[in-house]
Structures are given as C-alpha cells and as structure tokens.
Design a protein that fits this description.
Shape: globular
Order of helices and strands: EHEHHEHEHHEHEHH
Number of helices: 9
Strand order of the largest sheet: 1-6
Distance between the termini: 68 Å
Number of domains: 2
Length: about 300
C-alpha cells in the first residue's frame, strides 16, 4: 500500500493534507529538550505545503528537492521546471530548517554555477549532471559514462538492499552506524567498477547524508530515524506523515558548521565500520582457498617438469 494512504494510530501530528491530528499534544522538538509550542514554531500549513501529488516527470537526483516539488512547498513548481534560487532558498529555510545564509548560499551558488551565471532559475533535471549527481549515492544508481542519470528517480532495489544489508532486522530504526555501513558498501561497489572513488564525490555524498541526518535524525540517539520515514522520503520523495517542519532557534538551525561536523561523524563512522563490515569474512576465506589452490597447482607443475 502506498505510504500516503497508511494511517498510523500513534501519529501525533496532522498529516500533510492539513486534516486534524489523531492525537492532540505537542510534538517533541529534535533540536533540544523542549516541545515545539515552547520554542519551535510549526511551519506545516496547507497554504504553504500542499498534499503529496508527484508529477510524472524527471526531476533531480536529490530526494529533498523533489519532495519540495511534490508538495508544492513554498512556491516550488511541482514539475521541477524554472525553479528560482530565491524560491528554493525559502523552501530550504522553512521546510528543512536551514539557516538563511546556508540556504541562500546553496541555492544561489548551485544555480549560478550550473547556469554559468546566466540565470537564477533552472530545471531540476539539470542537476543530474556531475558532480551534483555523485557516485555512490544512497538510493540512486551511478551516473553513466556521460555523467548523466538515465532516470532521476530513486531505485527501489537499492533502498531495499540498504535495509537488508546495512540494517538490523530487529531494529526498526537506522542510526549513524547503519548509514556508515551502507556508505561503505556503495563506495566499495563504485571502486570495484570505476577503479576509484573521487574524494570530492565522497565529500558530496557525506554532506548529503549529513543534511538528512540533521533534518530527520534524532541527535540524542546517533541520528536515528525510522525505516518508515526513510522509505517515504527516499523511496517516494515525500515529506513523511509523522514529521513536521519546524523553525528551530537560530543557534540550532542547520548551517555550514553543523553540516561539516555531522559529515565528519559520517566519515569517522565509515572508517570504523570498514574495519568490521567492509568486507565479509567469506570473501577472505575465498581468497585464501583460491591462493592455496593456486600455489598447489604451481607446485604440481614444477614437480611434473
């Protein structure tokens, strides 16, 4: 069943169509130990964030941007065409809680870079070119040799593969360790195919994950997020029903410094995970058996001659 039609009996907030909540009560703010109605101002309003109505057209390889379009959030065009930098920046601020400086830097800088300074608007499908469409993405296939995605849509196969290989079957949540394990798997596959994982691409991938963790993860629990939230956001490019956009205090908004810090945590987690999980034990066993077999064969040839 499509996640849009599922209703959770434990939901405490209004779904994205603006209907009344199933259970009243303040939603805990993930930024610090206070409730939303004490410090954080809820931003989910039917007039600014519409219902989830995806348009069947190619958008970007970024679920965060596509989700904004799929909800028509803060003036974002649902077809992903002619997105203005200022409209994008405002949506990043109001929906995902980015700082004003960070949001405008990302929006204006990216669009000017892609359009080579000729325009402050672009079509989201233009983001499918390298380096925005980076290698070893979480749920997107690698770019083709021409540096383009054949399709900007997420891969359901990769999403299910991530849950199976990087998740714990007894835990409905994903934390930093699970994400680090999956990032290692994706980068390892890229190295096996392309011979290397460019450092700038690895940095972009870590930064992308760092932004998601800050928006949807619980920092008190290793940036843990439920599989349901991950599936809705990455699989359907939809703002999760159980989540509410918030306006955190300035000190807790997402900015350059916090993103670099969390990105560093991701890379550190990958380094630790690589030592334990990067290569399965059976791979080492296979190499040992093959090596011993090769040595035995060589010795047999030597004795024959």
């Amino acid at each position: 069943m499509h996640p849009q039609t599922q209703e959770s009996p434990r939901r405490r907030t209004a779904p994205l169509n603006g209907s009344p909540p199933n259970q009243p009560g303040p939603l805990p703010c993930p930024h610090q130990s206070h409730t939303m109605n004490q410090t954080c101002e809820p931003q989910l309003t039917p007039s600014e964030i519409g219902p989830y109505v995806p348009v069947n057209c190619q958008k970007s390889p970024c679920p965060a941007l596509n989700a904004l379009c799929n909800h028509g959030a803060y003036g974002m065009p649902r077809d992903g065409k002619n997105v203005h930098a200022f409209v994008l920046a405002r949506a990043l601020i109001e929906v995902y809680g980015l700082s004003t400086f960070f949001a405008y830097t990302l929006a204006v800088g990216s669009i000017l870079g892609i359009t080579k300074g000729w325009s402050l608007s672009l079509n989201l499908k233009d983001l499918c070119a390298l380096p925005i469409a980076h290698f070893a993405a979480l749920v997107h296939v690698n770019p083709t040799q021409k540096g383009k995605f054949t399709d900007g849509r997420p891969s359901r196969f990769l999403l299910n593969d991530m849950f199976e290989k990087a998740g714990n079957p007894n835990d409905p949540n994903f934390n930093l360790d699970n994400w680090a394990r999956w990032r290692n798997i994706q980068e390892y596959k890229t190295v096996m195919v392309n011979g290397e994982m460019p450092e700038i691409q690895a940095g972009i991938a870590a930064g992308e994950l760092a932004l998601f963790l800050q928006v949807f993860g619980d920092p008190a629990r290793q940036f843990s997020a439920s599989r349901a939230v991950i599936d809705e956001f990455f699989g359907y490019e939809k703002l999760p029903d159980s989540w509410r956009p918030q306006r955190p205090p300035p000190a807790h908004r997402i900015g350059f410094r916090s993103t670099i810090h969390v990105g560093g945590d991701v890379r550190e987690g990958m380094a630790k995970s690589a030592c334990r999980n990067h290569t399965p034990p059976w791979v080492y066993l296979a190499f040992i058996i093959a090596g011993l077999g090769g040595i035995g064969y060589i010795l047999h040839l030597v004795s024959f001659f």
